[in-house]
C-alpha cells in the first residue's frame, strides 16, 4: 500500500514539520569504511533521529540536503498553503525540483506491461525486467526482455511460482542472475525467503538456499565470489533489518549449504542502490547511522577490522526507491529519479525528477539533468552512450510531484558526462 498510497500518519502536521526540520538539520552524509583484512566496504548512510514511521518513509535516503544552504521558498507549495489557509513558510529545497540541464528524451517502445517495484538487470545489450506490481491487486510473475540494439521488446518468460513478485534483491555476474527474497503476492503481503538463480543463456531457474529470514527490498550484490544481502525490511515490511548475510556462489550455484552471517549494516531499510565498482561495495541509502552495530558473527573475530565514519558532501536531495535505478558510467554512478521526503504540509510523497551523478573518484554528487517527468522505482540501463529507463510510478503532472500513474514506458537520452 505504501507504494501506491501514502501511509497515514498519527503525527499532526505540526509534529511532522518539526520532524522534518529536525531530520534535515541533523542530516549529514556519511560513508562508513570497513576494512576487512584488505577489503573495502562502503555504506553511504543518513544520520537522523526521527520517529520510526517517518524513518520508513525516508528509507533509501542517500544523503541529506544541507538545510542551512538550501532553504528556499517552494512557491508552488506556498501558493497551495495560502489556498488551504495554512501559514506560509519556507521549505527545504528537498521538496522542490532542482535546477538541472534539460536532456533530450526519446520515447521508445513501452514494456508489454506497466510495473512498479519490479527489478532489472542488464547483461550487455539485453535488459531483463522482473516481476513488479501491475496494480495494487495484481503482481507480475514473469520477465520481459528488451534489446538495446534493436530497441524492441524481444521476449518474456515465467518466473518460478515460489519466487517473490516485488521488492526483490537482484545481482548478476554477467550470465547468472540471482533473485533474492522479496515480497510474495500483491497489496502489502510479506516477503518470502526463497531465493533463485536464472541462467540467462538457457532461461532455466534453479533454487538457492533460502535467506535465513525473509527480507523486503534488501540490498544485494555479488562481491568477491559471494552474494551479499543486507538491510531491507523484516516480515512486517516496516522494521528495518540490520542483518547482512553472504553465500559463496559460482556459475549459478551456491557453493555452501547456508548463508554466512556478516557484519550487520549499521542501519537497515529497503530500497537502496547496492553497487560494486572498483572492488568496493557501496550501499547508497539508509537512515540513522549513529553508531556501528557489533559484528553478529565470530567468523570475523580474527579479521583485522576498523570502522570509521566519513562525512560526505551532501547529496543534492534525499532520495529513495532507487534499487534498480542506477547505472555505472565512466567511474560514476548515475541515478534516475526516486522519491524524496514526504511533503511536510501536504504529507504526500514527493517524486524526484532529476538525474544524479555520484563521482567515485571524488565521492561527490552532481545533478546532470532532468527526466521527462518525476518518477520513482525506475529500472535503468545504459548502452552505447544512451541512458534508458522504464517502469515505475510517475508524477501527477509538471506542477504536481505526487505519485500517480504506474507506467511501462521506455525512454532514453544520449548521455554526455
Ligand atoms: C552546511 O552549510 C554551512 C554554510 O555554508 C557550512 O558552514 C556547513 O559546513 C555545511 N555543513 C555540511 C554538513 O556540509
Ligand atoms: C538484439 O538485436 C540485435 C540487432 O537486431 C540482434 O543482432 C541480436 O540478435 C538481438 N539479441 C537478442 C537476444 O534478441
Ligand atoms: C566516458 O569517457 C570517455 C573517455 O573519456 C568518453 O569518450 C565518453 O564520451 C564518456 N561517456 C559519457 C557517457 O560521457
From TrEMBL:
Transmembrane domains' residue ranges: 16-36
Source lineage: Eukaryota, Viridiplantae, Streptophyta, Embryophyta, Tracheophyta
Listed SMART domains: Kelch
Keyword Nucleotide-binding part of the UniProt annotation: no
Residues making up the signal peptide according to the UniProt record: none
Record-linked Pfam families: Kelch_KLHDC2_KLHL20_DRC7
Entry keywords, A to Z: Membrane, Transmembrane, Transmembrane helix
Protein's recorded name: Kelch repeat-containing protein
Amino acid at each position: 500500500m505504501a507504494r501506491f498510497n501514502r501511509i497515514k500518519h498519527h503525527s499532526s502536521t505540526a509534529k511532522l514539520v518539526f520532524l522534518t526540520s529536525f531530520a534535515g538539520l541533523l542530516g549529514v552524509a556519511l560513508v562508513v569504511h570497513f576494512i576487512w583484512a584488505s577489503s573495502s566496504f562502503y555504506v553511504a548512510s543518513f544520520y537522523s533521529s526521527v520517529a520510526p514511521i517517518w524513518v520508513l518513509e525516508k528509507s533509501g535516503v542517500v544523503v541529506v540536503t544541507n538545510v542551512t544552504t538550501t532553504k528556499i521558498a517552494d512557491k508552488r507549495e506556498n501558493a497551495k498553503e495560502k489556498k488551504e489557509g495554512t501559514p506560509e513558510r519556507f521549505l527545504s529545497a528537498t521538496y522542490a525540483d532542482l535546477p538541472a540541464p534539460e536532456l533530450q528524451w526519446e520515447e521508445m517502445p513501452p514494456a508489454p506491461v506497466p510495473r512498479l517495484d519490479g527489478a532489472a538487470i542488464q547483461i550487455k545489450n539485453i535488459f531483463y525486467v522482473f516481476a513488479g506490481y501491475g496494480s495494487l491487486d495484481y503482481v507480475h510473475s514473469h520477465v520481459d526482455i528488451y534489446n538495446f540494439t534493436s530497441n524492441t521488446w524481444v521476449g518474456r518468460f515465467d518466473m518460478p511460482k515460489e519466487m517473490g513478485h516485488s521488492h526483490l534483491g537482484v545481482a548478476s555476474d554477467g550470465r547468472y542472475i540471482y533473485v533474492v527474497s522479496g515480497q510474495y503476492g500483491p497489496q502489502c503481503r510479506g516477503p518470502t525467503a526463497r531465493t533463485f538463480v536464472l541462467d540467462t543463456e538457457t532461461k532455466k531457474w534453479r533454487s538457492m538456499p533460502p535467506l535465513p529470514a525473509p527480507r523486503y527490498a534488501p540490498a544485494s550484490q555479488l562481491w568477491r565470489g559471494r552474494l551479499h544481502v543486507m538491510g531491507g525490511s523484516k516480515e512486517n515490511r516496516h522494521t528495518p533489518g540490520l542483518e547482512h548475510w553472504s553465500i559463496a556462489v559460482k556459475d549459478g550455484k551456491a557453493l555452501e549449504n547456508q548463508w554466512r552471517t556478516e557484519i550487520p549494516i549499521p542501519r537497515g531499510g529497503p530500497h537502496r542502490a547496492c553497487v560494486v565498482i572498483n572492488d568496493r561495495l557501496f550501499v547508497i541509502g539508509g537512515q540513522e547511522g549513529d553508531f556501528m552495530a557489533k559484528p553478529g558473527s565470530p567468523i570475523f573475530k580474527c579479521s583485522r577490522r576498523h570502522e570509521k565514519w566519513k562525512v560526505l558532501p551532501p547529496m543534492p536531495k534525499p532520495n529513495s526507491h532507487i534499487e534498480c535505478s542506477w547505472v555505472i558510467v565512466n567511474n560514476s554512478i548515475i541515478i534516475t529519479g526516486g522519491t524524496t521526503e514526504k511533503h511536510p504540509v501536504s504529507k504526500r510523497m514527493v517524486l524526484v525528477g532529476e538525474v544524479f551523478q555520484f563521482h567515485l573518484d571524488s565521492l561527490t554528487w552532481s545533478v546532470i539533468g532532468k527526466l521527462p517527468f518525476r518518477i520513482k522505482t525506475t529500472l535503468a540501463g545504459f548502452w552505447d552512450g544512451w541512458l534508458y529507463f522504464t517502469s515505475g510510478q510517475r508524477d501527477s503532472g509538471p506542477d504536481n510531484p505526487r505519485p500517480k500513474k504506474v507506467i511501462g514506458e521506455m525512454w532514453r537520452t544520449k548521455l554526455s558526462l
